[in-house]
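Quick look at the format.
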Amino acid sequence: MAVKIRLKRGGAKHAAYYRIVVADARNQRDGRFIDQVGTYNPLPSEYKLTLDEDKIIDWLNKGAQLTDTVRSLVSKKGVLAKFADQKAKKVVKKEAAPKKAAAKKTTKKESK
């Protein structure tokens, strides 16, 4: 199942208001969603962007894809930078972990 983090439109004509949601890519734009992770009001007089950074990073770790608009909004808030730092730390930990020496098993034929 392809999961996307995208905008769900609300509000009146010429007064759009969006919720940032996690939804199956096959669902309609304003249809069923899995989780709400933020809101966005683009009107110049009432501009407001709220994000639940922990939820967004959690969904990105699970493999959710950002739409172009949401990627722009999330990167402006610095959430993508946090996600990249977190991902880099995981890679460093994996590389720094000591590798176990492969123990060679002897068979009866080799011991003779």
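Next, a different chain entirely:
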Amino acid sequence: MKTAHDIIIKPIITEDSMDRLQDKKYTFQVAKDANKIEIAKAIEEIFGVKVAKVNTMSVKGKEKRMGRYTGFRPDWKKAIVTLEGEKTIEFFDGMY
């Protein structure tokens, strides 16, 4: 069985994701085989908040070159988590 920290890999800190914080939407990189229910439970367990909605998307890895050789970065999965209630995730509080 996967733990919550196996499902949630890292937060994604970009301009777009910082703009969404005012709408209580937080962006995370998650395990590729995780579903929305597992992601919601993991966020609730790690941060102690109530999740209203989870949107997921699979992100294709970009092509990268090293001289004349080409390869691809790995594919990954992104989750945008919307919270309900007044509570926020403290990790993101000082960023925007």
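The first strand starts at residue 8 and ends at 11.

See the schema section for token definitions.
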